[in-house]
Structures
1.
Amino acid sequence: MSETTAPAAHGATRASAGTSAAGGRTAAAPRRSLLKPLLFAAVLLLLLLVPFYVEEFWLRTGFAVFGAIVGAIGLNLLVGTTGQLSLAHAFFLAVGAISYVFVSGESGGIGVAQLSGLGLPPLIGMVVGVLLAGLAGLLFSPIAARLRGIYLGVASLSLVFIGQHVLNSWTSVTGGFNGRAAPDFELFGFTFANRDPLLFIAGVEFREAERLWYLGLVLALAAYLFARNLLRSRPGRALQTLRDSEVAASVMGVNVQRYKGRVFLVSSMYAGLSGVMYALSIGSVAPESFGLEVSIQYLAMIVLGGLGSVGGAALGAVFVSALPLVFQRYADSVPFVSSVGEGGLAAGEAARFLYGAAIVLVILFQPAGLAGLGQRFRRRGRDPGGGRATSTSSTSTETTAVPSDRPAQGSTS
Amino acid sequence: MTQFLSLLLNGISLGAMYALIALGFVIIFKASEVVSFTQGSLLLLGAYSIARLSEPIGFLPAVVVGILLTALAAFLIERLVINRLRGAPVISLAIVTIGIDIILLTELIRRIGSDILNVPHPWGSESVRIGDVGISQNRLIATGVAGVLIIAFFAAFKYSSWGVAMRASAEDGETAALMGIRLGRVSALAWIVAGALAAVAALFLVGAPTPGVSAAAYTVALRAFPAAILGGLDSTGGALVGGLLIGLAESFAAGYQDQLLFLGRGFGDVVPYVVMIAVLLVRPSGLFGTKELTRV
């Protein structure tokens, strides 16, 4: 899986690396511009072919990972690019997922609980889910825009807990403690389920997992491209300036409050989409799937990938979200990990240890994350001779991808 | 009226414990500019070690060892991780503590499992009556101990050389360093004190009326976050006020649950967060926090 998204990191860092490359090494520019689209196309082709060769477990994991990628890219825009620490991501995921289930689900009773639903087409449910998550972000943004740095981080913590409370209490919509089932996705009569219609392509039966894989691929790709282009645009640069110094940004004419509000909106819309995809991937939603732990997982993804890098976020999402699933499946062959009740580490625990340690190590030794690591190797490979000078200059441009500037953060103390 | 008084008393005692944890947050923030998300798992570590050690070595030694262990863990975190990241952005520091928290918490929860460990407090789960108002003995003692600790802390903060060094380094780290104050030592001490305070709070938080040590103690500790934030992250007095406010709000919301039923069951658990958001809307730096000024 990791090699499939490596080019993503490549693409994302071009925005920051491009300036230094253009200034220092014009010779490399034309060769790179040809190589990159080719590589991108090759990876895309590979991803398109995966369902023909790979078993269902990997396809299902893949869809969950695509969902996580969307969410991680969204959080990265907020935390990595704009420097606004948010622990509320799980809440926005929940808003998206619940809206989808409510809008597209049918009314009816499960056991004692009376559930209400609108029964609209799933596509509308997805759009509404994204929009409502955005709305939730917009409603929170007046608070968000007033708070600085760490105050925002803790204030956003409260959204998760309040959200959990609402999810558990508002039974008619959320299904309460037990949750409720998510309807299958459907696009103009084509369902993303095992039948309706039965579909064979090149002798491979296209069941739910195969269909969802393509859905996830399309959504994750769209999310990736949108974020990458956003970062290269004028608003993207404004956001980065905001992170480095709010004062400098406002002096240059960036409306600080409005941009903070907007980035919250965009990030929570990403989370909403990710939430919808989560609901589809699990097949049901329950309040306990949107606890603080989820927010922390997303934070772990973007830290591991490298704050501020879109491709890095995708890479981190692959690592963090696939790890527990893979551990669970290969519990027998991974050392120290065992199935539940056998005395060893459970899969979820092992994964938590691993990414907890990874967060600490990344921040201690490689603040630019996986994206920075990839870039460092590429630089070194390209000119082995006098590589030292350029590689140090490249690290200095890379660190702009991390909110490491003292002045920016000093304002929060 | 009786119910009101009883809730008030319970709220104050709960608030006193929140204040202890919140003080930990605040002094860590003042000394090393870190918002420590490890406080929750440190608290759980304290509670766990006290519960596990009480049987073999007796209650009082277990409490002492538990507090020391927690302080030691906090010290190690500071030395091994935080100290190496001096000058890193606040957000990275916060995230690194989240990483440490994940590791500690996962291990503790794995050990505790779904059990509820009992801490054999000598004062048991009896309650005392003051007039018509009842309160568990555990909570009463907690209020007393917390009161003494808080007074001692403020005295130390004001008069001891550590307190002076700490306030100086919070005011202006560079100047303090030039004056010969060893910032590393100040920060390490702050972490030790915060760890010890968390362990003391843990000792009482897992006593009556709470059944014992379970994974839920962690979420209780998280509720001290609103306390620290709404008082103002860099104000020790604010932590005290914030802790009491949160304790009272939670106690009243839980006590008058029947009148608040339209807000859903268990509203008392989230009321600290609601209060925090309400306060932050009006005062973005908390009640007593320093307003952030920007000089251009």
Note: The beta strands of chain A are 108-110, 113-115, 180-181, 186-187, 190-191, 200-201, 204-205, 284-285.
2.
Amino acid sequence: MAVLTDRPAPPVARRADRGPRALVNRFLGYAILIFFGLVFLYPFVIQIANSVKTEPDAAAHPLSPVPDPVTLAGFERIFAGTNFPLWLGNSLLVTVLVTLGRVFFDSLAGYALARLRFRGRAGIFAAVIAVMAVPGVVLLIPKFLVLKQLGLYDSYAGLVVPLLADAAGVFIMKQFFESVPVSIEEAARIDGAGVFRTFWSVVLPTAKPALITLTILSFQGSWNEFPHSLVAVQDPGLFTLPRGLADLVSGSLGKGTQYPLKLGAALLATIPVAVLFMIFQRYFVRDANEGADKG
Amino acid sequence: MATEALRAPATTPVRPPRRRGGGIRSNEHVAGWLFVAPVLVILGLFLLLPILMALWVSLTDWNGQGSPFTGQVPFVGGDNYTRLFAEDGLARRDFMTSIRNNLYYVALVVPAQTVLALGLALVVNNRMLKGKGFFRTAFYFPSVTSSVAISVVFLFMFANSGAVNALLGFFGIEGPQWFADSRGVLHLLLGAVGVDTPPAALTAGGPLGLTWWDWLAGPSVAMMSIICLVVWTTSGTFMLMFLAALQNVPVVLDEASTLDGATRWQRFRHVTLPLIKPTMFLVLTLGLIGSWQVFDQVYVMSQGDPAKTTLTPAYLSYRTAFRDFDYGSGAAISFVLFLIIILLTVFQRRVMADRDEPRRPRWWRRRVPEGS
């Protein structure tokens, strides 16, 4: 491998583009892409197709992307026979409140940790980092205990308040504010603007990309949140979409498999995040890459 | 929103006296605490405090009636913990079964998702292919969807008359009844080579309440479907991490080694892989940490069945507390799981912090063998 040649370097990239070998390589590359494209997307095709099939059709031809006949019976039953509209409403309410709370509180704290000098700052930041390591699944019983104790169990407050701030969001905002030049806010400070005013009308507007990222992550996170609602409420009137969906699947509906209905409900629950993903894809992607950089 | 930046400097200084004698500093001090207060209160109240409460409950026999913090609740000390490890009984058998299940789950999920993610990243990173953006999106999309919703889809795909069995049917294979099949994959493999009845030496006894034969069952057929789902949903995220790392590999290096006559595999093995080692470490450890937390999928797809072969510690702790109303045991299981995850996280963070200080790959390489 280390053999040195004294040939003048040919333009490698172009040479590799031609010839039968490159053609085979490229063909192989596309074959792999398309194969895995199918593996990753076909389940969604199956989901959509089977949600508009009749039940016998779905059972007989689960793989077929063509419903025969097309029926909206599953969707009709979702709206008429289940509490889907209620779950949808609850999910919307919880998601909007949690997203607003996280964006506001996380950026406040992120700004303070990045810019304001106060005693205990280093300690608080260390605590935030430590908290990020606490896995959600071990908090199921603890959260239940504290919600009971505070009288928040089985209430909207119980669904929303514990999620209003998250350590990862604080971390993202702190990192961002540290990358903003100090000069802008110093000018504002010298002009006599208070700390909050400087933050609110000078610094925050420059943080738009970070705010969008945080908004999207919070929306996606709270829309999909399942374990928290599992231990925060038991009243079916307070179920969010994932909770209702899980309830639907574990068979309280009885009679038959009802796959078209279940797939349809799951599809409807997926659509908002899917749309968000399509529009703001680069923000999703950026987040994953930031994870790679910082760990 | 953006226009306010222009407006702000216009606010005239009104109260100069406040800025006298370190005024700004104390101002900042108060403001700093006020700014972090909401986050501190929420995290303290719904994260730290509950962990302490659960620690207390794990030392009691609380059954969910009334408050666990009154004198009436029997204090049992470390009993809930010893029952998980030292006393022969149902509690230990279930716990060890869940540990076994999760170990096999980790052993399959982590390598599978890492290899798949890296493979996808390599293909998507290929300079000669078009339409990569679309495929990158397609591979990543499952990662952002709801775990519950996607579990419903996989429940259908792995149903007895579902898509997976229909696909296997094309190849003349009769698929199993996925979610009713508690047979371990290793047992099945042994059966295929003729070991139908377990040797007596393995069924006679074994460590921690399970026989050797039970420990060596492998993941059940039902667990395999959950493994498929998880690998499918997580690979996209890890692919993006690998992609970011691959894009930092200088093209010149690759071309130089091509000139030197290195084969594709040699280039990958000796040029690319060493350069993306930090990301590899990150993906492996994030995978390790994440795969001890599997819960949603188990809840929706199998609830620990069949024959407890999809029981994981996370789900067992939930079930013990909220179905069997044995909150003390449930909390104890949570804490053992907590310990496992925290140890993995601390290990990861220490190695990564070591790496971040001197930014030299060679130094990093020397560090790895000690820990991993």
Note: The two ends of chain B are 49 Å apart (CA to CA).
